[in-house]
Automatic annotation (TrEMBL):
NADP(+) binds at residues 189-194. Keywords: NADP, Oxidoreductase, Porphyrin biosynthesis. Residues 180-299 form the Quinate/shikimate 5-dehydrogenase/glutamyl-tRNA reductase domain. Catalyzes the NADPH-dependent reduction of glutamyl-tRNA(Glu) to glutamate 1-semialdehyde (GSA). The lineage of its organism: Bacteria, Bacillati, Actinomycetota, Actinomycetes, Micromonosporales. Residues 6-156 form the Glutamyl-tRNA reductase N-terminal domain. The active site is at 50 (nucleophile). Residues 312-411 form the Tetrapyrrole biosynthesis glutamyl-tRNA reductase dimerisation domain. GO terms for biological process: protoporphyrinogen IX biosynthetic process from glutamate. SUPFAM superfamilies: Glutamyl tRNA-reductase catalytic, N-terminal domain, Glutamyl tRNA-reductase dimerization domain, NAD(P)-binding Rossmann-fold domains. Possesses an unusual extended V-shaped dimeric structure with each monomer consisting of three distinct domains arranged along a curved 'spinal' alpha-helix. The N-terminal catalytic domain specifically recognizes the glutamate moiety of the substrate. The second domain is the NADPH-binding domain, and the third C-terminal domain is responsible for dimerization. It comes from Dactylosporangium sucinum. This is Glutamyl-tRNA reductase. Homodimer.
Length: 427
């Protein structure tokens, strides 16, 4: 089994293409089902955020897996594979592990060190688990990536410069419109990004705060948590007449703010669009008095130059990648060792049955002692080779030793392994 990552982000693709690929919860579930139905894809996790769409997969062959994943993404975007290929990145095996760990640590984010990606990755992994799309390989990769992300944030100060895309967008917007302290603000959307937006606005001193959402109950729950006022979505036009700052973060496939609606507010507005697909229709940013900050603008303006904390984080990632590769090599050889021991047990049992047929006069006590002795001899003979092959497999190129065992003893390794039975899934 091989690890493969195929995706697009703000670094490689334009927002229009990312918008076509962006998936909400139901769409992620459908994509997972389509992915694991492909010939070369055994496991999959789909990560879809405001500035990236990625597939983490365990595949049986590199080229076949790449073609399968590229085909699924192209169909979901409604574009030819060739149109996506130039904007995709592909990471394989060790590079796939490194990429997963860097993403979890916030090193590949638009705002380097932002912590929200950790929660988004956890959610993506959770959905894959619920859909039975993640197996032993991706369970281990995701669990370790989440642990590495937490470690980086605990042991470095990489997130001190900017906590999130929200804070970066607000900082950029205030550069054009002035401070937002004591200015009324509205958040459209009651998901995780909406909650983060309210918290960030409150820390910045904005207020009073309002939140609206198509599900008013969700808006009320969020408002209660952040000291805001929940307003029915139908009152959005009148809300726009009362606020100076609007942050949109919905999962709507269509814009929720268009030029006529915003122009009808009749006031200057700082509009921050954090959604993908975009919540704000073309033309809104051209209205008099409107300052529009969206993902596309942020991706062009934010610097990702590594500082000392970034280098420290990269060092942690590098060390953790080596640790994971050691596990991966050991995991690759474990089924071979298990198959070798099973083959030995089969041979011993067959010989004991043969002995019982040839010497029926043997009593149960003698037969039991003979069986115990033979099993001990075989286990002692196998102990040193199996311990040694695990040690050798942990080194670069160690997979050749497991392959040699399979060839020498004609071992058949099951293509699928139950993660729970193998003891590889952690709670």
């Amino acid at each position: 089994m091989n690890l493969l990552v195929v995706g697009m982000s703000h670094r490689t693709a334009g927002v229009p293409v990312l918008e076509r690929l962006a998936m909400n919860g139901g769409e992620v579930q459908a994509a997972l089902a389509e992915l694991v139905a492909q010939p070369y894809v055994d496991e999959a996790v789909v990560l879809s955020t405001c500035n990236r769409v990625e597939v983490y997969a365990a595949v049986t062959a590199f080229h076949g897996g790449l073609a399968d994943i590229g085909g699924v993404l192209a169909r979901r975007a409604g574009l030819p594979v060739g149109d996506l290929a130039s904007q995709m990145y592909v990471h394989y095996e060790v590079d796939a592990v490194r990429h997963a760990f860097r993403v979890a640590a916030g090193l590949d984010s638009m705002v380097v060190g932002e912590a929200q990606i950790l929660g988004q990755l956890r959610d993506a992994y959770g959905v894959a688990g619920e859909q039975a799309a993640a197996g032993r390989m991706l369970h281990e990769l995701m669990q370790q990536a989440l642990r590495v992300g937490k470690r980086v944030h605990a042991e470095t100060e990489i997130d001190r410069a900017g906590q999130s895309v929200v804070s970066a967008a607000l900082a950029y917007g205030q550069g054009a419109t002035g401070p937002i302290e004591h200015r009324p603000a509205l958040v459209v959307g009651a998901g995780a990004m909406g909650a983060l937006s309210l918290a960030t606005l409150r820390r910045a001193g904005a207020g009073p705060l309002f939140v609206t959402n198509r599900s008013h109950a969700r808006a009320e729950r969020l408002a209660e948590l952040h000291g805001a006022t929940a307003v029915p979505f139908a009152e959005l036009p009148s809300l726009l007449e009362r606020v100076d700052v609007v942050v949109t973060a919905t999962a709507s496939p269509e814009p929720v703010l268009d030029a006529p609606l915003v122009a009808g507010a009749g006031r200057s507005l700082l509009v921050i669009d954090l959604a993908l697909p975009r919540d704000v229709a073309p033309g809104v940013g051209e209205l008099p008095g409107v300052t529009l900050v969206d993902i596309e603008l942020l991706s062009e303006s934010l610097s990702t130059t590594a500082d000392a904390e970034g280098r420290a984080a990269e060092d942690i990632v590098a060390a953790e990648v080596e640790t994971f590769l050691t596990w991966l090599r050991g995991a690759d050889v474990a089924p071979t060792v298990a198959a070798l021991r099973a083959r030995a047990d089969e041979v011993v049992e067959a010989e004991l049955r043969r002995l019982a047929q040839r010497c029926p006069e043997m009593g149960d006590e003698v037969r039991s002692e003979v069986a115990h002795s033979i099993h001990r001899i075989v286990q002692r003979l196998l102990h040193q080779p199996t311990v040694r092959v695990r040690q050798l497999a942990a080194a670069p190129g160690g997979e050749a030793y497991a392959q040699a065992l399979r060839e020498l003893f004609d071992l058949q390794i099951p293509s699928e392994i139950n993660p729970a039975a193998a003891g590889e899934v952690h709670p």
